[in-house]
Amino acid sequence: MITVQEAENRIAQSLESLPSETVSIDGALGRVLREPLRADRDAPPFNRSTFDGIALDYTAIERGQAAFPIAGTAFAGSPQLELTDSGSCVEIMTGAPLPDAANCVVKIEDLEIESGIAQINEDVPLSAGYGVHPQGSDCKSGQELLQPGSRLTAKELSIAASIGKAELVVASQPRISIVTTGDELVGVDETPLPHQIRRSNDLALQAALVAGGYDRCERFHLRDDRAETESTARSLVDESDVIILAGGVSKGKRDFLPEALEAIGVQKEFQWVAQRPGKPLWFGTANSNGRRRYVFALPGNPVSCFTCLHRYVLPGLDRMSGLTGADSEPIRLQSDFQFKPPLALFLPVRTSIDRNGQRWAEPLPFNTSGDYISVASTQGFVELPQEQETFASGDVVTFRPWLT
Amino acid sequence: MITVQEAENRIAQSLESLPSETVSIDGALGRVLREPLRADRDAPPFNRSTFDGIALDYTAIERGQAAFPIAGTAFAGSPQLELTDSGSCVEIMTGAPLPDAANCVVKIEDLEIESGIAQINEDVPLSAGYGVHPQGSDCKSGQELLQPGSRLTAKELSIAASIGKAELVVASQPRISIVTTGDELVGVDETPLPHQIRRSNDLALQAALVAGGYDRCERFHLRDDRAETESTARSLVDESDVIILAGGVSKGKRDFLPEALEAIGVQKEFQWVAQRPGKPLWFGTANSNGRRRYVFALPGNPVSCFTCLHRYVLPGLDRMSGLTGADSEPIRLQSDFQFKPPLALFLPVRTSIDRNGQRWAEPLPFNTSGDYISVASTQGFVELPQEQETFASGDVVTFRPWLT
Lengths: 404, 404
Known about the structure:
By secondary structure, chain A is α/β, with parallel strands linked by helices. Chain A contains 8 helices and 28 strands.
């Protein structure tokens, strides 16, 4: 049996980077950027008015002038005007380029306009540069705005659009096969016999993968049959980058997966991890059609399965994609907790944030790892290390959120 | 000018609940549940073995028996067996129903099996109920497992699947039109002239809406033309539940939207909110084809637009959907901050969690509300109230995350 840390390390060492691909910006939401994005010009690209009002040369204000003849109107989207006479002004709209030689914008609320003359109200605070968003003040042409490894969310796509990246280089989506196993499982739309239960792991795994940005998933179900297990596993290994199996990896008489996987040439990297839930976790790799394939065989019990997905598979996919950033965070336990077996414990918790912004984790009453119903009231799990038995309220532990 | 709170209240009072619809569980990820989900039977539905091993009657152990003849094998997915002789045992697999009259499972690791006899190793801690996940211990038949108003994520879908809800009643998706305005804007794939900039608000708004669970979005662009603005607005009000406009609502000479919207019968509920950014925010309602329509006209500046989406539009959509739960949380400021104008301030912040699980917000160096580039390095914004000018490091304020 290996430790959680060793399991994590062995997986990380096995994983290779996914190939990159180019996608349209319209399809790039949630993808992992694989190129640096640089400004194609200054932002803003010109001295930009931040108000509706008049643009003028502030030196005229300094000279004591308060009434300005209007020499023209600058609209957003029209070419830059010139302020030929420093004693006049130009009406200007928000977002329009400041006329050449103008360096101050007076808001329309601070003016009276009559007969083509703009009269500035008394005691309006003004200065050189007031109302001006200066060219290049957000960034200079050529500046790196986003680094490879960023997840493309709304704010990143806004930047990509503004610099004209209609196409983006991103990590390709791994083809993921989600495979449930077990003769006790029937479909969601079937009525189970007393000794049967409905299949739910496949949907839960797929939903969490999609929430994590990995939507190229297909679902399969395997009966407890040695020959079928082997032939299906063979075709899945040929056609998938990542195979996630749920169930069939423990020591039961119909747990055919480990031997079937090894029979078709999947190299076992490890099995048995000192953790609860999820001790039977099996991980292996294969090569097929020149690409490396990864097989995560998770225990079939829903909580084990869901926890192992979040602890090992999703971080593995992020690593293959080149995503940067943390996937866990510190949190304080809200009550005492004891756990004696020499295993790391993944403990589902209800999180809360107190009125000071401190985050707390309330462990679920410990039932069994099959209790997927109470898991729905939790936001993730804390990882209690193997070396420690007793945890006090207020202790800081590591929290990982469920993906939603 | 109204306050942020009043703007929020007026929007909330205007909004009507979206209709419900029934969707397949396969398409339900991210939707808002509109019916309670109740257990269709006990969970687990039978006394379930949590190990691979042997099932027996614990009274035999109490009598001192350590070797048990194996009378059969219980597989997951096979009907329940009977333990006819309390001195014998049944081999059992994880997830299988415990035989009638058995009440204890001994793990396979704690046994030696030879010639059909299972011999329990010495000093194995056992008890009545050991290794048994009892029928109904997770929930009883009929128990409410999920309430209306839950967002359907992986863990909720797992429950829905397990109770056989192949179809679910959820809030319908509002049809959302995202409309950019302004002659200065060109497409992402175009090369802007010196006085032009590329359109990015539409993509950013759509991405955040999709991340928030609202993916029925279409994008449009309006030139600064009074007649076109009115005719396009008319057809959008007929065909959309929610129209989100970006730009054209301030006091500029080509800010045609407020008058065009009122001309086509959109009832203005308010304009001008005491906030920065986003002061020109305009909100109105209309009735068309028997359904209520909502028009949010946001300022065109990217940071204003993005902030107002998160502060008003997304919470509004959640309310229309019936989603329960908080959309903001307390956080501590990481540095002093001063803001004098009598406006509430929405301030983008970089968040961090210290090693004790305390969350901190570091305000961006305050530039102008057009600086969408530095917003990419933030995780959301804090809302500094209008009544206060000076904020000290350590002060607790309200944080809202960007949707990702």
